Amino acid sequence: MDLKSNEPFWLLKNGLLASYPSLQSNEKCDVLIVGGGITGSLIAHQMIEDGYTTILIDKRELCNGSTSATTSMLQYEIDVPLYELIEKIGKKGAVLSYKACSDAIDTLEKLSKMIKSNAGFKRKKSLYFASKKKDTEWLKKEYQARKENGFEVQWLGEEQILKKFEFENTYGGILSRQGASIDAFQFAHELFMYNVKKGLKIFDKTEMVKVEEYKGFNLVTVDSGYQIKAKKIIYCIGYESKNLLKENFVNLKSTYAVVSEIDKDKFKNISNTLVWNTDDPYLYMRTTDDERMLIGGGDEDFYDAEKRDALLNKKEKEILKNLKKIKPDYHFYPDFVWAGTFGETKDGLPYIGEHKKLRNSYFVLGFGGNGITFSVTGMEMASLFMKNKKHPLSRYFKFGR
Ligand SMILES: Cc1cc2nc3c(=O)[nH]c(=O)nc-3n(C[C@H](O)[C@H](O)[C@H](O)COP(=O)(O)OP(=O)(O)OC[C@H]3O[C@@H](n4cnc5c(N)ncnc54)[C@H](O)[C@@H]3O)c2cc1C
């Protein structure tokens, strides 16, 4: 099969998992969540657990934003190396951020078990290898920083990488114990369905077009003209937050992913490992639970969706050429290729917190290669926000930092 598609693999694999009504009456609630991707699903779960009446709206079908395009590697490792993050924000914040992402993986495992998820959560190790000889120096420094701060890591030389993973032309790397992968699209849908049974109200094809303050409440008008009166709003709107908040807090990037045909044998020595390298932009890969290889990379600045998608063929070639460097004899047969947009911040950290422009509101914007794990941390943070309390990470993830 050599079918190519600009639609992300997860959308095609899963089809329409659930459908919800659009808003056709006025409503009121304790918490309104705007945005129904993986972040919205996690925050909605937390709000229902905390006992709030909760409504969630999305202007598309649920999970049709970046959640449908993600490669869903669940990593404690942030795009900015730990030693560099320590230099940028200090040891306390940097180590706390890495630990939060590590804990997030454990939380997702627990949640998957609790809701009896079929979204293929699988624990994996993670290999971060040097693609150039000169990168070994800083990667060893990174290895030391992680080891000193209690992360379970092992240094593998190039011979060990060759033996274990059959990757050629690497210059050593860090093998971490902590990591996992999941089908985030399916998982988010499952979590929504679980919470709908517990009282969560969902309206899709419902766009927030206006928000105003009304007697201490937020009054939200949606595109059908109906209104929702909410004590608090939690914005989980991903990269489209750029439309709401005009300051320059995130650089939008286009990123590309290719998934291979199913092959039970070919990928078996990386089926338990997430892999990424020190290239800029980096190459990243993992296997899927239906035994395909999923590779991403080729990131570049985002201008518009048309320009992004026009590069699909070029980017597919670029990604496969980079794969050839470590797997010269591999015959990779692509089944699907797609592009997605994501955000990159100056310190690799998310924006989770209040914004001075919008009162009684909170943002959970998990950007970058750790978008999903950051959103899990956002659950705890949003829960504290509802109780007017601060989280130890609030000062590192806040706007205007
Ligand atoms: C190709 C690719 C690979 C990635 N790989 C990884 C990875 O390996 N690991 C990882 O952790 N992260 C990865 N990411 C990032 C991760 O996918 C994102 O961080 C995550 O999907 C963001 O989810 P979200 O729910 O915040 O945003 P989205 O899924 O974009 O959801 C936001 C929702 O808000 C809705 N919305 C926006 N405005 C409004 C409005 N006004 N009214 C109503 N609804 C609105 C949108 O319709 C959308 O459904 C990757 C991203 C891409 C594109």
TrEMBL record:
Domain FAD dependent oxidoreductase: 30-383
Transmembrane segments: none
Entry-linked InterPro entries: FAD-dep_OxRdtase, FAD/NAD-bd_sf
Gene Ontology, cellular component aspect: cytoplasm
Pfam families, per the entry: DAO (PF01266)
Highest taxon, organism lineage: Bacteria
Protein name as it appears in the record: Glycine/D-amino acid oxidase
Organism: Chryseobacterium rhizoplanae
